[in-house]
Design goal:
Helix content is about 25%, strand content about 35%. The protein has helices at about 100-110, 130-135, 145-160, 175-185, 210-220, 240-250, and strands spanning about 1-5, 10-15, 20-25, 25-30, 50-55, 60-65, 75-80, 80-85, 120, 140-145, 165-170, 190-195, 200, 205-210, 230-235, 260-270, 275-285. It has an eight-stranded mixed sheet, with helices on both faces. Strands 2-3-4-5-6 form a five-stranded mixed sheet, with no helix packed on it. It starts with a strand and ends with a strand. The radius of gyration is 19 Å and the shape is globular.
Length: about 290
């Protein structure tokens, strides 16, 4: 497992009884996590000092219970990036902190490439990966089906001082965008893909990861350059183990000279030194 341990403004303090206790800057939040199936003693006294707790509803969704007045949004930093945190009605905050371990990895690949690098970021959410790639020197195409998420990503770019970087912002269905790029003859040196388990495109297109991800990955090989740098796939779906991602990438990328590595990514729990698993990543990288 690869833990994301380069944070200063984020900390996973404790994890028990289906919940995480997290510090986002100076703000303490408690959020549910289905991976946390154990029920041990709450080690940290900060559980009682949480600023807000997210409660799931039996009818689906949930809501935040605020113990004190919080700003609608605030900033945290990761290295040179400034990212906007804002608790949403779906428990998310706009940042997946475990992804920082991947940002570190591909940023180094881009900086050391010795050539211009064009990156395509699909299901790009609020742009953490987009901005990490742009800060490392890449030209990035950022695609997400949600207009609100793309706007959030643009605000993250502005707060990070990266608005002038070569980033193309697109609100689009990822599959249809890739199909059009094939017809247009456009190519990319690297692809980042962070697909949801289930989702809908801007025109109601249905996405189910188990049915849809492999055909999309195959499509993406048609827009790779002759000398690709990397292909990264993230998954939060428990049924898609790292070995599944490795097998998929090994199958579709076999014509290129590279290696495939897939593993879990996670977050270190500061109260006990253990690591909470937070999904899987499959990485193809050139030799």
């Amino acid at each position: 497992m690869r833990p994301a341990d380069t944070w200063v403004d984020y900390e996973l303090i404790d994890a028990t009884n289906h919940n995480r206790l997290e510090r986002w800057g100076k703000t303490l939040l408690i959020r549910p996590d289905p991976q946390i199936i154990w029920k041990n003693e709450e080690v940290s006294p900060l559980w009682a000092r949480a600023d807000a707790i997210y409660y799931r509803s039996a009818k689906g969704g949930g809501q935040w219970d605020y113990h004190k007045k919080l700003p609608q949004k605030w900033n945290i930093k990761w290295q040179d990036l400034t990212l906007i945190v804002s608790p949403t009605g779906f428990k998310h905050t706009g940042v997946f902190p475990e992804q920082a371990v991947n940002w570190d990895w591909f940023s180094e690949k881009i900086r050391n490439a010795g050539r211009p690098v064009k990156v395509l970021n699909l299901f790009a959410y609020t742009g953490g990966a987009t901005l990490a790639a742009a800060a490392a020197g890449a030209h990035v195409t950022h695609v997400d089906a949600s207009k609100g998420m793309v706007q959030w990503a643009k605000e993250n770019a502005a707060s990070s001082g990266l608005s002038d970087r070569p980033i193309r912002w697109l609100v689009d269905d990822c599959v249809k965008f890739v199909e059009r790029e094939i017809r247009r003859g456009n190519h990319y040196d690297a692809i980042i893909m962070d697909p949801p388990s289930y989702g809908r495109g801007p025109k109601g297109e249905i996405w189910k990861i188990e049915e849809s991800v492999y055909p999309l990955v195959k499509l993406c090989t048609q827009i790779l350059s002759d000398n690709p740098l990397f292909f990264l796939i993230n998954s939060y779906t428990t049924g898609l183990q790292p070995a599944v991602l490795a097998y998929m990438l090994g199958t579709v990328m076999k014509k290129y000279n590279g290696i495939v590595i897939a593993d879990e990514i996670g977050l270190s729990v500061s109260s006990n030194g253990l690591v909470l698993p937070c999904g899987a990543s499959g990485r193809w990288e050139s030799k």
